Amino acid sequence: MLTFTYRTLDRTGTESRTTIEAASEAEAIASLKQRGLILLGPDRAGRFDLRALLATEIGGVRLSASERADFTRELASMLAAGLDLERSLRFAGEIASSARMRRIVEALRDRVRDGASLAKALSTQAASFPRLYIGLVRAGEESGSLAGTLENLAELLEASRSLRASIIASLTYPALLLVAAVGAIGFLLTNVLPEFVPIFAENGVKLPESTRILLAVGHGCAVGWPYALAVLVIGGLGLRALLRRAVPRLWFDGALLRLPVAGGLLREALAARFTRTLGALLTNGVALVPALAIVQEVIGNRAAVAAVAVATEAARRGKGLARGLESARLLPVRTIHLLRLGEETGQLGEMALRAAAIHEERTRLGVEQLVALLVPAITVAMGAAIGFIVASLLLAMLGLNALAH
Questions:
Q1: One domain for residues 351 and 266
Q2: 103, CA 20 to 30 Å: which among 22, 58, 95, 403?
Q3: Domain termination site, one of 73, 99, 129
Q4: pLDDT, tens digit, for every residue of 347-371?
Q5: Checking phi first, is residue 92 left (phi over 0); if not, alpha (psi -120 to 50) or beta?
Q6: How many C-beta atoms lie closer than 10 Å to residue 262's C-beta?
Q7: Of the listed ranges 8-22, 74-88, 110-124, the one predicted with least confidence
Q8: 141 and 128 Cβ atoms separated by less than 8 Å
């Protein structure tokens, strides 16, 4: 027999700790229900759970964005097939891709089995399910279309995952090329070029100015890299602490969106996230003002959050969403026009989703064009740097050859 301890409520509403011996957890729960007790959950007071402690310390109880998308798609498919919510959660837990995901799904199932709504169960796992997710599920439950809402939510999460994966895949090659270029140049400056210094010194060769500069740079890299690394770490931590303050972070995020080339790409990506999230909320029955409040929590950029807050106030006063966003001049003009058209035709949610599809495609194309420029630019810069190093070394070698003659 095993011993289980639970937090329970009796018929008078008094909460207590109840300990029971049973062959399994299911049998223990059934016995508690026979006594007329309402199960609140397992009691972990005074227990030391090393696995739970480690999971909490390293963030192991949090679902990744990919796991959240997979769970949503699987749950939507099971509900659409006619299964009830508790069985759907049980199957989702059984096919979970990791032990972490299985524990979270089982915790949701326990809550639902005890009578909680799915939205309420999700709110107990706030680290894994953001407010946007919970708000959409709550709207789906209230409208009686949970399966359809989860289907739309799965499409939202999968579109976000696809866009992020596309950007990462496109930027991987330029990043590796840049690392290889910096490594090759650093190796030449710190290991290859200094090997020739004793030869030139023994023969009294006066080194060209370019060669002396390269030797000085190589010596500085070889000797000063720990200090440079320390400066970078301290500077990074200081910048991170500074950006936690509201005013510097607002200025920094606004400056990012106004960069000459990257700023346009960032605005397209921001518009895609904003319209995709807003459209998903509106088409699932969330009112405009509450939807905008949720959007402010997921778009990330503080300058955009401030612009959406102004637009939210304008929408609350009946002046329209597009007009409020237009005054900020952060989102692309296309976004404003499509949202205004949606307001005029009474199809704001649908037009927001159409705008999202356009902006997501433009973001992909923009990243591809940026990569198409970055790869040859890095290659040319690396070739020029290596050519300059080799030319400087050859000039010094010519001076050595002249002394020999």
A1: yes
A2: 22
A3: 129
A4: 888 999 899 889 988 988 888 888 8
A5: alpha
A6: 13
A7: 8-22
A8: no
The residue among 75, 94, 129 that closes a domain is 129
Alpha carbons 313 and 316: distance in angstroms, whole number: 5
- Same structural domain, 11 and 85: no
Is the domain of 84 the same as that of 19? no
Among the listed residues 219, 320, 324, 342, the one whose alpha carbon sits nearest the alpha carbon of residue 275? 342
DSSP letter (8 states) at residue 193: G
Q: For residue 395, give both structure tokens.
A: 């000039």
Q: How many domains does the chain have?
A: 3
Largest CA distance in the chain: 109
Does any domain span residue 337?
Answer: yes
Q: What is the pTM of this model?
A: 0.65
Which domain CATH number covers 317?
A: 1.20.81.30
Residue 155 has a pLDDT of: 84
9 neighbors 38 (Cβ within 8 angstroms):
yes
Residue-wise pLDDT for 18-35, tens only, equals: 777 776 666 776 777 677
What range does the domain containing 84 cover? 56-129
Residue type, position 57, single letter: E
Residue 65's pLDDT band (boundaries 50, 70, 90)?
confident
117 residue type, one letter:
S
Residue spans of beta strands (DSSP E) within 210-336: none
Does residue 300 register a pLDDT over 90?
A: no
CB 185 within 8 A of CB 367: no
Let me know whether 74 and 99 are in one domain.
yes
Q: Which residue has the tokens 């910096």?
A: 182
Q: Do 8 and 43 reside in the same domain of the chain? A: yes
Q: Residue 87, Cβ neighbours under 10 Å: how many? A: 13
Does residue 165 fall inside a structural domain? no
Residues 356, 278: one domain?
yes
pLDDT at 323 over 50: yes
User: Considering the domain boundaries, does residue 396 fall inside one?
Assistant: no
Q: How far apart are CA 297 and CA 300, in angstroms?
A: 7
Name the nearest CA neighbour of 269 among 136, 152, 168: 168
The CA distance from 344 to 403, in Å, is 85
Taking the C-alpha atoms of residue 124 and residue 116, their distance in angstroms, rounded to an integer, is: 11
The DSSP letter of residue 189 is I
The pLDDT value recorded for residue 2 is 61
Tell me the backbone φ, ψ of residue 15, rounded to 5 degrees.
-85, 140
- Rounded Cα distance, 284 and 144, in Å: 11
